[in-house]
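Practice problem 4.
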């Protein structure tokens, strides 16, 4: 199973996303079982955020993780831009920790840039790391200019990851961001790697004949091929989200799929890498 180093820890390259989870009480048991199925299949990374369902996702994750050894989970959450100030961030972190039923996060991400000065947000993230409430901090939805600005800050190089929308059809970050991150040894966390649970991105990837043909050759689903593609470069962790037990377990196992050079070229022909800069995709 492919692994990636995240803040000094080796973790499986496919984790568990939880966006849109925790909002429907009738699905609570099913969603808890889905998260647990992913962990039981070998996942370690669980990604959530205070924004997701206004805390509902974190509450659900806390319930799902209750039977597990905390040290066996790599837990990520995110702070909203409006809450990322020196005055407010710790209180919001404490609220996330309470919902998650834990006393620390492995990684705390600045969800996207807002109006608070970046220097203030990063200084506070680094201070919170010193308290032990977070083991590492990172960013999300940052493009190259954002990372270059971050790199100039006194503690900016302590950043542990950047989380962005990335999949076979949405490859804009390959123009220069993925190379920048590889050069600076900054792991990428890819959200919506198969286009979202309900295909919010209206992608054609899952019904693409070439994707389906490669999936058939490997005797797996198109979802699994898309995940294997997302992590094939070696510096990326994919965090697909699903509420289906069977689906989540299969997603995790996709980290064992090796796509051949021929298959990668076939997929490139269907969804080429960009030859010009495009705006950062955000969902």
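Answer key:
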């Amino acid at each position: 199973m492919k692994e990636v180093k995240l803040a000094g820890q080796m973790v499986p390259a496919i984790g568990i996303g939880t966006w849109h989870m925790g909002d429907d009480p009738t699905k609570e048991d099913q969603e808890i079982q889905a998260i647990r199925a992913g962990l039981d299949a070998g996942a370690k990374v669980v990604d959530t955020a205070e924004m997701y369902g206004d805390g509902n996702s974190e509450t659900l994750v806390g319930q799902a993780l209750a039977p597990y050894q905390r040290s066996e989970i790599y837990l990520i959450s995110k702070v909203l831009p409006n809450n990322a100030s020196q005055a407010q961030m710790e209180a919001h972190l404490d609220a996330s920790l309470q919902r998650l039923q834990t006393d620390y996060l492995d990684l705390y991400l600045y969800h996207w840039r807002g109006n608070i000065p970046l220097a203030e947000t990063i200084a506070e993230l680094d201070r919170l790391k010193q308290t032990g409430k977070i083991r590492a901090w990172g960013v999300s939805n940052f493009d190259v200019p954002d990372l270059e600005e971050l790199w100039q800050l006194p503690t900016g190089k302590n950043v542990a990851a950047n989380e962005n929308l990335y999949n076979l059809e949405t490859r804009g970050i390959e123009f220069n961001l993925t190379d920048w991150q590889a050069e600076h040894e900054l792991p990428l966390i890819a959200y919506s790697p198969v286009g979202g649970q309900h295909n919010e991105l209206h992608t054609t990837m899952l019904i693409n004949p070439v994707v389906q043909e490669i999936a058939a050759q490997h005797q797996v689903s198109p979802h699994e091929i898309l995940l294997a593609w997302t992590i094939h470069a070696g510096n990326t962790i994919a965090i697909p989200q699903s509420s289906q037990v069977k689906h989540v377990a299969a997603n995790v196992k996709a980290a064992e799929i090796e796509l051949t050079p021929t298959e990668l070229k076939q997929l490139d022909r269907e969804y080429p890498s960009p030859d010009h800069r495009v705006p950062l995709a955000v969902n």
